[in-house]
Amino acid sequence: MNAISRLSTAVSLAALMPLTALAGEVEVLHWWTSGGEKRAADTLQKLVEDQGHSWKDFAVAGGGGEAAMTVLKTRAVSGNPPAAAQIKGPDIQEWGELGLLADLNQVAEQNGWNELLPPQVIEVMQFGGDYVAVPVNVHRVNWLWINPEVFAKAGATPPTTLDEFFAAAEKLKAAGFMPLAHGGQPWQDSTVFEDLALAVLGPDDFHKAFVELDESVLTSAKMVEVFAALQKLRGYVDANAAGRDWNSATAMVMNGKAGMQIMGDWAKSEWSAAGKVAGSDYECLPFPGTQGSFAYNIDSLAMFKLSDADNRKAQEDLARTVLEPEFQQFFNQNKGSIPVRMDQDMSSFDACAQKSMVDFKAAAASGGLQPSLAHGMAASSYVQGAVFDVVTNFFNDPKADPQKAAQQLAAAIQAVQ
Ligand code: BGC
């Protein structure tokens, strides 16, 4: 029985049981709207409904979540935020400062969150020492997805270094394939940029650049090299990339039109939803040159203060459910991520997830674990926006000067601090 059918059995059994007295409603804002993402989000909805509560889906389409955050701000300003919203990284602190987030300390204490979660994760989920958010998963951003059949047809070798990456791209191109499936949207451009930065700078300088915002690294010769690599890579992207959604790019690799995609492991949700098997139908490789490093992107649900007691109960049940092993398994197997509980049994996960968990733990011990800038984990949304602007302008101008871009990067970051 697979995770989904086990889940539907659990749900149909639940339908026979009396509903709890304290049934409430949870409205959940997220941007999990691709086919694969939706399957993952549905697992949470079912587990919440299973407890007698009703789920109000507040899904806002748009990869990377920019559109969802805009809508959330509008709702919050009008005094009507949802019960829970997918808010990540340092942004949680910004929402906490507004005084809008609910305290989850009791659920955390009763369910031993302090023992379950890595200390770096706990820090992000708390505001002023109180839990205000619950982590859902751990995504890895530095992945390269390849179609092995296309590689074989083109005589290309799965790359482990940037030089090998460009050599493979050249072979794919010569054989008539689209080398790299990419969607020209700012967050996707910066996802690629950040993977190149991790490869060229290494984890220490990556941290200095995007967490410490160190000007000397931002303007360094290595950063110029990152932009130069981005420019070279741009040459392997097709002319119709502008505005393409990330999951359409994944589909191009899946249907054999393209050879590779650089994307976080939510891309795997599309492969899984299509019934494809990791290790045979597709391969996940650490982005060339970043073996040993792990750019993490932790999805989390921050909870807003509610006045209705039943809805508050539903909100607490949602928070508790998210860290239970059952949800961690169902959700992450569909979402492409790994559980955020480090004690989770990984035996039923696929090869990519198992590798991701091993790499996460090794990177955490070696200093290779770094927060993703493109996915809102490294710096404020203002810094992230400044980087997006510089990177996307650079990406869209084939004649842009890498040297100038590094200067612009530092200046743009400086201006929003
Ligand atoms: C989120 C993922 C989501 C992806 C594509 C990322 O920023 O963390 O949960 O699947 O964007 O929308």
UniProtKB/TrEMBL annotation:
GO CC annotation: periplasmic space
Keyword Phosphoprotein found = no
Q: Which InterPro entries match?
A: Bact_solute-bd_prot1, SBP
User: What UniProt keywords apply to this chain's record, in alphabetical order?
Assistant: Signal, Transport
Q: Where in the cell is it found?
A: Periplasm
Q: Which domain of life is it from?
A: Bacteria
Leader peptide range in chain numbering: 1-23
> One Pfam family of this protein, by short name?
SBP_bac_1
- Keyword check for Repressor: no
What family is it from? Answer: Belongs to the bacterial solute-binding protein 1 family.
Q: What does this protein do?
A: Part of a binding-protein-dependent transport system for a sugar.
Q: What is this protein called?
A: Probable sugar-binding periplasmic protein
Source species: Pseudomonas borbori
